[in-house]
Amino acid sequence: MNQQEGYADDIVKGFVIWSMVWGLVAVLVGVFISFQIAFPQLNFPPYLTYGRLRPIHTNAGIFGWGIGSFMAFFIYITQRLTRTSLWSPGLAKAQLWLFNVVIALAAVTLAMGMNRSKEYAELEWPVASLVVVLWVIFAVNIVMTIVKRREEQMYISLWYILATLVGVAVLYLVNNASIPVSLTKSYSAYAGANDANVQWWYGHNAVAMVLTTPPLAIFYYFLPKATGVPIYSHRMGVIAFWSLIFMYLWTGAHHLLWAPVPDWVQTLAMAFSVMLIAPSWAAVFNGYFSMNGQWHQMRENYLVKFLIFGITFYGLQTLQGPSQSIRTFSAFIHFTDWVPGHVHMGTLGWVSLVLFAAIYYTIPRLYHTEIYSIGLANVHFWLVLTGQLIFSITMWIAGVQQAAMLNATNPDGSLHYSFIETLVELYPYWHMRALGGVIYLAGLLVFLYNIYLTIAGAKTQAAAQRA
Amino acid sequence: MDSASIYYLGVTLILFLIFAAIVVRTYSKRHAARGEEPKFRMMDDDYPNHQ
Ligand code: HEM
């Protein structure tokens, strides 16, 4: 425990460091699988094939890097917004161990081919059960800290944190309901179209409750901290929060447009997805308006640059997403590389930029020092921005080209191109995407080096002071 | 419309009404100042005992 301030911050350090480790694994595997697509001879069966490595990439990214750092910042933020120390630092320590065990088990079991075949819910029941224990421990600790809070009112970040805790629990339990037939194999409790519907209700709300509400909690907390100016409107934040919660849960079926789920379910998902523009952009405007009179900080304050670019990508993401949810648009881009373009603007642009800012803000404070190099932080920023833009833009162009080719017909109505012919045309884009990934990886390494030297410098300083 | 659809619509309507009530409350004149208070208080949260 950090005695001076009374907050349990050592555990925050642990989660930040481990989330960075898993983040590096996710990006390394991501770059490798992007090369596997560009150069198929890089597939080495059975373990090092694209099919085995892709879920390791997504699990390490979303759960290792994403959830790991959300755990860090939920603990950091909740203590401060409630002005009280964590309910149980001991429990949080156990949580950190369990978190790492779960992610390591996920990597090993997925490499061995144990997979429920549900996207983002791949883990077989023994590992999934550990995830449930992990989440309960985490949720109880945070909720109990909020219960014993010294602040009467809850700042908007706390609402997003609570929504994440409840939302993930409900989604995970429902979509993971399955019938085990052995230690390594289970079957979903649902069948056919129902199973698909439950899966995408889960899948899209993983986007909501993992890739949206936690980074929003973090953004709303760290933007004012970084600029030194309060958020523009707390009440607008509250309304945007409730409308986001009201709308998100109905949108899952936009992943199943034209599929054999009832038409009205698809239409409902489409309508609610378009409505989502409002709460999403309320958060974006809240960020932008908070910058009134502060825009010069974009140049002077590297943290602000990460945060404002992050929220801008969130804004773009929440315009592109609703467009993709419209039947005609979906018919065009679905099953093409457009979709990974969308995904990575969200994960590499929105989520990761906000997390980088939060880590840059907290690590020096937790270690009572300054960041090692602002210059390196700027290099990091431009590298990850360039890498991500190359990735997303090439995938959007590739997606449009592939969609156009898949839709091209001859005068007699037959298809002009076979599926494999469309793939052959995509090689140049896949090379570009791999290059984008390498640039992003270079940026990430600069970031890790900067953080490593910051921590190492702080430890040397502390040792010198003690001597 | 079968009973499942009516139930679905009913739940949506109830949720919408709850949401509308939250909007009205949040933007009522009585809550204006109080509703903005947390954004100022969070600016200074470095010490747990600071009121
Ligand atoms: C208003 C908000 C959003 C809407 C309506 C939306 C809509 C969509 C749609 C329709 C798809 C499916 C595309 C297809 O396969 O045809 C999709 C995919 C996806 N979106 Fe979004 N999106 C939104 C925001 C976001 C955000 C903020 C993220 C954050 C990272 C995100 C991450 C993803 C991911 C990971 C997938 C891929 C799912 C898969 O594996 O198929 N989305 N989105």
TrEMBL record, chain A:
It is found in: Membrane. Gene3D superfamilies: Cytochrome c oxidase-like, subunit I domain. SUPFAM superfamilies: Cytochrome c oxidase subunit I-like (SSF81442). It is a multi-pass membrane protein. Residues 15-467 form the Cytochrome oxidase subunit I profile domain. Keywords: Electron transport, Heme, Iron, Membrane, Metal-binding, Respiratory chain, Transmembrane, Transmembrane helix, Transport. The keyword Plastid does not apply. This is Cbb3-type cytochrome c oxidase subunit I. It comes from Geomonas anaerohicana.
TrEMBL record, chain B:
It comes from Geomonas anaerohicana. This is Cbb3-type cytochrome c oxidase subunit 3. Keywords: Membrane, Transmembrane, Transmembrane helix. The chain crosses the membrane at residues 6-24.
